[in-house]
Structures are given as C-alpha cells and as structure tokens.
Design a protein that fits this description.
This protein is mostly helical. It is 69% helix and 0% strand. The protein has helices at 8-34, 38-50, 52-63, 67-92, 104-113, 129-142.
Length: 148
Amino acid sequence: MLFPSFDHTTWWGLSAIVLFYIVGFLHVLHAVMHVRTSQGTIAWVIALLTLPFVAIPLYWLLGRSRFSGYVRARRGEDLRLRKLAEDMHRRLLAYEVEVAEEDVFSKAARILGGLPFVKGNSLKLLIDGEETFHHLFEAIARAENTSA
C-alpha cells in the first residue's frame, strides 16, 4: 500500500505541515532577494526552514521591510557624492603637474587612483605610531585654512 491508512484529521495535519514548509521555502526565496543585510538573510533563511509555523507570521510582520525606500535613499546619496567627486576632480585639474613619460609607477598610480597629480604636495613615509601622531599634530598646528 502506497499511503498508510490514517484518518482524515491526520491527513489534514500532515498536509498543513507540508504546506507550511513549502510556503516557508517560498519566503526563503523572497528573503534571499530582498533582505538588506547578509546576516538578516541568513537568520530569516534558518528560521523559515526550521520553524515555519512561527517564522512566517514574524516575517510578514517584521521581515518584509520596504527595501525600495532604502535603495532610493542610497541612490540619491550616491548621486550627491558622485557630483561632489566630479567637482573636486575638475578643481584639481587646475593644479595638475605633468608626469615624465618614463615614470611608469606614477602614471599607473594616477590611472588607478583616478585623480591627477597636483603640485604643492610632499610625501614622508611614517612607520612609527608616535612619529606619525607627532607629524599629524604638527601639520594641524601649521594649517592656515580648514575649509574644504
């Protein structure tokens, strides 16, 4: 016999359990695609697959946050930062210095950094923490202008 002989109540109960696990799995797919953080996604996946009876109502109440609002806000902030970066790059071009053709390292650094080399800078490699802080505070004390 393919199916054991259970009464109707048992079949309804088993069907409900299977249905909850199927719905839990479908919610897992939704969580993987729409939850904001990886930690949140992992937590929802584990909860929805192990305890779908408890996790599905909780996911309806707490987990289905509106991700689109977050994305819209993030895109707006990214656009604002991109405009600031373009403005800064345009202002730096006025101070750009030419790099010798044979200075391959400098040319590569400029390409990788995405910014021009500008005059008026110096470089000192600071390895020791105490020396680094001493030079930082000294440079702050010599500063004439603090606006960007």
